[in-house]
Specification:
This protein has five helices and six strands; from the N terminus they run E-H-E-H-E-E-E-H-H-H-E. By secondary structure, it is α/β, with parallel strands linked by helices. The longest helix has 23 residues. It is globular and about 45 Å long. The protein starts with a strand and ends in a 12-residue tail after the last strand.
Amino acid sequence: MIIKTLFPKSLKMMQKNLEVPIKLITTKNLKNYTKWYVHPAVQYLSGVHKADYFRIYFLLYYGGGYSDIKRHSFSWKFAFDEFRNPNTWVIGVPEILGGVASPPHVDLSASFDVLISNGFFIARPGNEYFAKVHARQNVILDKKWEILKQYPASNALCQYDCPKYPLRCAELLGEIMSEYGLMFNEHLSRTLPMPDLSNYR
């Protein structure tokens, strides 16, 4: 399992309740795991967008689970058993009403009931869904590379408060996952329980 940032109380709950091995990936150990191509524009991204990129990267190439650090109360130990069904590629938390990120000029909000959240999921390595998502991420970074060099993220949350930063908040993950999630929804299991989102500590 790969997790993105450190909130001690929530992390302790994850370690206690998820009942699966947890690996914290940080800037200090990232190079140990990036054995495949990483787009050179990643260095200019905000911290949030880096996490958007690498959660797909790691689960595409390694498989396993990803979670934002939240207060999990339920085990993921037996969720991996669903991969006995070869038709199951990704196991996630059901998306919520109002939670779907839609690309510009397309409204996918009504499809929330067949999609998964992009904050908590388990994936079969090499699955076509995440391969498509990752390929689109790299295409977007190809297009934005030069302007990212001019206006790189100045902080981890730059997608919210940096006027010249060239990426929308959900452009590098949520919008793409929604689009391809509809395409591959028959390969998605929506059985992971939602963690407590009310407290990030």
